[in-house]
Design brief:
8 strands, 14 helices, alpha/beta, globular, 353 residues, 12% strand, binds S-adenosylmethionine, 43% helix, eight-stranded parallel beta sheet
């Protein structure tokens, strides 16, 4: 279904429940026609919470108060990858704060080893990295890279994501470089960050389409106590947005997700942990019913999971991996969907898009 740019803005602000039923139906129908009933499971490994960035929203940023820092060992990471294989997942996702503690050679060695012993697809989400690192990791066997551009509003971006001294952060340019290197690329935004207007969010969704992203993650912004965005900066940005401020609620997140499915019909879209955190009873299922076709179960060992608190109360924080995976599989089946087999590669990479 072709959607005009102006329609995105209208749909985002729609409040009539019967009209919204139509949006949910269209998104679910498009998901079924374009990517089918499979839900791909990607095993998430939160490799480190060390970070040099001062992102104003994030609970593990360098400016976040009193965080105990960790870096998983190579053996611990490899154990998690083996676990992903044993669980029948097709992909592992290694995510971390942006840190030089994750060196080019160390990560390349881990990627090579995971590939050799599991054959799984490997996704990286390690922040903004040097081209030489990205090339080395691609050559070692990594397949995909996730880097949310967070917002298309340049002023808001500068406010919430300060550049490192002497550099200018340009995540779209980074993503294009990654694609050039051969990665499937994934991006996304948070819904309802202070300062985000309806117009900005509509432009974000339109931008997903413009760049033909392979993966798009959309979750609600969840205030992280003690971060600048949860304090004075957030108040100032809300005033700036005025009555155009987007709320960070489940409904608006689901509208953004459904609209993203309509403008990017063949993209892999997760039902995010942030949505499941905000709406524990039905967030995950509603995401799957309104356009999503991916879930990322958390495989991080319990002692580290508790320290990777990008926002408080993360869903599944106190569950064992076995329980998380069993619950997610049951949820998928209850919706009449199937667990995807294999790596769940982007249609664009298969030359079909
Ligand atoms: N350091 C890497 C990066 O910046 O891409 C990966 C880790 S970062 C924690 C992953 C994503 O978490 C960010 O892109 C952001 O959208 C999301 N995130 C961070 N803080 C959040 C918050 N308070 N609420 C919701 N999502 C958040």
């Amino acid at each position: 279904m072709g959607l005009e740019r102006a329609e995105i803005l209208t749909w985002l602000q729609e409040t009539d429940e019967s009209r919204l039923e139509e949006l949910w139906r269209l998104a679910d129908e498009t998901r079924q026609n374009d990517v089918g009933s499979d839900v791909h499971l990607r095993g998430l490994i939160e490799v480190s919470n060390r970070c040099v960035r001062e992102c104003a929203y994030c609970g593990i940023s360098a400016c976040a108060p009193k965080v105990e820092r960790y870096l998983m060992t190579r053996e611990e990471i490899l154990d998690c990858a083996d676990r992903a294989k044993a669980c029948g997942f097709g992909t592992v996702v290694m995510q971390a704060g942006e840190t030089p503690a994750i060196s080019r050679e160390w990560m390349a060695g881990i990627i090579r080893e995971i590939k050799a012993r599991t054959g799984l697809a490997i996704t990286l989400s390690l922040g903004e990295r040097e081209e030489s690192e990205l090339r080395a990791w691609k050559e070692a066997g990594a397949d995909r890279y996730l880097l949310r551009f967070e917002t298309t509003d340049p002023e808001l971006y500068r406010d919430i994501h300060p550049s490192l001294p002497g550099t200018v952060s340009d995540r779209i340019a980074q993503l294009m470089g990654m694609r050039e290197i051969g990665f499937e690329i994934g991006t996304g935004v948070m819904v309802g960050i202070p300062g985000q207007t309806w117009e900005t969010l509509a432009q974000d969704i339109w931008t997903f389409r413009d760049y033909g992203m392979d993966m798009i993650g959309i979750g609600p912004y969840l205030p992280s106590p003690g971060t600048p965005l949860d304090g004075e900066l957030g108040r100032r940005l809300r005033v700036r947005a005025g009555d155009r401020q987007v709320p960070n609620d489940p409904l608006t997140t689901l509208k953004a997700l459904a609209l993203t499915r309509l403008v990017c019909p063949r993209t892999n879209i997760p039902s995010t942990t942030a949505l499941a955190t905000l709406d524990p009873s039905s967030g995950r299922a509603n995401g799957l019913l309104r356009g999503a076709n991916v879930i990322m179960p958390n495989l991080t060992p319990a002692q580290y999971r508790a320290l990777y608190q990008i926002y408080p109360g993360k869903a599944g924080l106190h569950e064992t991996v076995d329980i998380t995976v069993a619950r997610i599989r049951a949820q998928i089946e209850a919706l009449g969907r199937t667990v995807g087999q294999g790596p769940g590669t982007s249609p664009r990479m298969k030359g079909k898009a």
